[in-house]
């Protein structure tokens, strides 16, 4: 028997694709068979592996119906996992996903990656309808669970809070890693992820202009390439703006781009050589951040703006939070850590303690238990229906 995961998938480079891959691997460790229905951008052709049984073109509405019919006609598929993020599906506010679920006669669960506190009407309706037909709904924070119940009117009995998973990064000596990457002697501040407006990198750069005055031996690493879809529309406009800002602030020797999509091995190394991880999202409603999750998993000392996800996961002194998206306040918090080894080690220890609970094998076990319970309940309901005929 098998499970189908619906969402973006590698080689597409985006957070949902990485999440889908990691979830698939962790479910298979726990004994499940997982196949993929991939969502692809209309203008890209991806060389998928054999695990992808169907490819939905994002804006091709009939593809969603055909994918549902394929699942309906495949007896060994027991359940579908729908990864939900508005931007990956076609139609207004991603409502083509409803064309899939309306034609599906197998049980499905929804994994919510974005639960907006002030959704537009179509966004509210799309997620509300998607969750109303689902057998289960997974969210990654208690705050999102509260919003789903209060605002989106999801039955609380359907909701399961399961944290974002962390890859099994290999823990290594920071000084050895700094030597490997030519960073010996520097205190490293880093931010990683696909680059684009909304990441707040300009806040980090402006904060560095204050930090280096007091701590000239610091360097800010901006890790990751420009989001491929953004690059196809606008080229490197955002990165060029950041480069201009770096020159304007005379920070050429203190800010370094690593302009590539990092493998898990490379990412783990960069995180473990990082002294302070900076998460400068300006959007206070950011519900989940895989990048912040990974930094916690590696036990980094963290400075962050006070967005929704950071407020929940960095409580109990797991990180330092700026009250607003302000470069000066971020700089003050960074300098507090640079000036106190004791504070740095305390933040690292508390983050690492939480992060160990978020390893993908453990998270996969939580998903496995949730999925098996839903499948069992679904089979029980089918038996009752047959008995009543």
Automatic annotation (TrEMBL):
GO molecular function annotations of the record: glycosyltransferase activity
Domain Glycosyltransferase subfamily 4-like N-terminal: 76-167
Listed InterPro entries: Glyco_trans_1, Glyco_trans_4-like_N
Species in which this protein is naturally found: Thermosyntropha lipolytica DSM 11003
Gene3D superfamilies attached to this UniProt entry: Glycogen Phosphorylase B (3.40.50.2000)
Domain Glycosyl transferase family: 180-353
UniProt entry keywords in alphabetical sequence: Transferase
Record flagged with keyword Lipid biosynthesis: no
Protein name stated in the entry: Glycosyltransferase involved in cell wall bisynthesis
């Amino acid at each position: 028997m098998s499970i189908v995961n619906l969402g973006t998938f590698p080689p597409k480079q985006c957070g949902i694709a990485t999440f889908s891959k990691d979830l698939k691997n962790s479910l298979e460790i726990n004994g499940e068979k997982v196949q993929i229905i991939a969502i692809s951008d209309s203008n890209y052709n991806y060389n998928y592996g054999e695990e992808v049984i169907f490819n939905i073109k994002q804006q091709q509405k009939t593809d969603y119906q055909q994918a549902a019919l394929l699942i309906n006609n495949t007896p060994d598929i027991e359940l579908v996992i729908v990864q939900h993020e508005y931007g990956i599906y076609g139609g207004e506010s991603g409502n083509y996903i409803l064309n899939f679920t309306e034609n599906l006669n197998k049980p499905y669960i929804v994994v919510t990656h974005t639960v907006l506190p002030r959704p537009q009407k179509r966004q509210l309706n799309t997620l509300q309808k998607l969750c109303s037909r689902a057998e289960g709904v997974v969210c990654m924070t208690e705050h999102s669970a509260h919003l789903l119940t209060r605002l989106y009117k999801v039955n609380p009995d359907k909701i399961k809070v399961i944290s974002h998973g962390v890859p099994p990064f290999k823990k290594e000596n920071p000084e050895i890693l700094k030597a490997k990457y030519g960073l010996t002697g520097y205190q490293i501040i880093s931010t990683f992820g696909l680059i684009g407006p909304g990441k707040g990198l300009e806040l980090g750069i402006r904060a560095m202009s204050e930090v280096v005055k007091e701590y000239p031996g610091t360097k800010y690493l901006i890790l990751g390439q420009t989001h491929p879809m953004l690059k196809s529309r606008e080229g490197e406009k955002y990165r060029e703006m950041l480069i201009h800002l770096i020159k304007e602030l005379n920070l050429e020797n203190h800010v370094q781009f690593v302009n590539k999509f990092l493998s898990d091995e490379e990412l783990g190394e960069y995180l473990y050589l990082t002294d302070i991880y900076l998460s400068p999202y300006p959007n206070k409603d950011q519900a989940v951040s895989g990048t912040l999750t990974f930094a916690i998993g590696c036990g980094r000392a963290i400075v962050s703006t006070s967005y929704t996800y950071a407020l929940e996961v960095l409580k109990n002194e797991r990180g330092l939070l700026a009250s607003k998206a302000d470069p000066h306040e971020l700089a003050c918090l960074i300098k507090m850590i640079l000036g106190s080894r004791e504070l740095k080690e305390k933040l690292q220890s508390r983050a690492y303690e939480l992060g160990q609970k978020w390893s993908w094998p453990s998270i996969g076990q939580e998903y496995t238990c949730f999925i098996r319970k839903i499948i069992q309940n679904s089979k029980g309901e089918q038996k009752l229906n047959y008995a009543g005929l």
